[in-house]
Specification:
- There is one protein chain.
- With 207 residues, the protein is α+β, with helices and mostly antiparallel strands.
- The chain folds into two domains: 84 residues, 3-Layer(aba) Sandwich (Glutaredoxin), CATH 3.40.30.10; 103 residues, Glutathione S-transferase Yfyf (Class Pi), Chain A, domain 2, CATH 1.20.1050.10.
- Helix content is 50%, strand content 8%.
- Helix 1 runs antiparallel to helix 6.
- The longest helix has 29 residues.
- The structure holds glutathione.
- Glutathione (GSH) binds next to helix 1 and helix 3.
Amino acid sequence: MSKITLYGIWLSGPTYKAGLALSLMGQPFAYKHVDLRAGAHKQPDYLAVNRFGQVPALVDGDLKLCQSGSILLYLADKFGKMGGKTAEEKARVREWLFWEYDRLAPNVYRPRAIKRGFMKADDNVYQLYTGLANDALKVLDSALTRSFLVGDEATIADVAVYGDVAYAGEGGIDLGPYANIKAWMARVEKLPGFKTYEDVLPKQDAA
Ligand SMILES: N[C@@H](CCC(=O)N[C@@H](CS)C(=O)NCC(=O)O)C(=O)O
């Protein structure tokens, strides 16, 4: 059976979510570096893997998948791990996945892209995103009076949301006021198989 291959770039938060899920599930994977700066994600060979021309993508045999949330759901289902134990838990996991990519991810990733010079924007645009990020972080902080987001064990909901908040600092967003988020991040970081984005995502192709 051939290994799963993850396509992405080490600076990409959504790629980190897929890599972190594989690592937490104890699944080795091959890796293909997609050079966004060179426009590799818009070339026909990559568009054949991900029609949206974005990273990440995941290839498992003949199956080509994209969208980090969909990839996480696929991995949870395939390996029977981190997907929630009951129908209700599985539904709650999906709620968090849809919420985080609506309210949290763009509002953390875009300030980071502005700070790192990947995106040009005026200060008022930066302030708009960070204001929305803080609105979402308040909601998250008040939900995190429990060990993990859903049930009593870590799920892919924690992976997806961790893959947003891990970049808050790089975007100039202070997590200081969010004690519950900080305590939860420390719990996620203690899970077996946890890796930072620098550690989980190679900077070049890897077999
Ligand atoms: N909703 C997508 C977002 C993916 C995304 O925004 N990827 C960025 C890199 S972090 C990308 O490929 N940007 C290049 C582009 O959109 O042209 C997911 O979760 O996979």
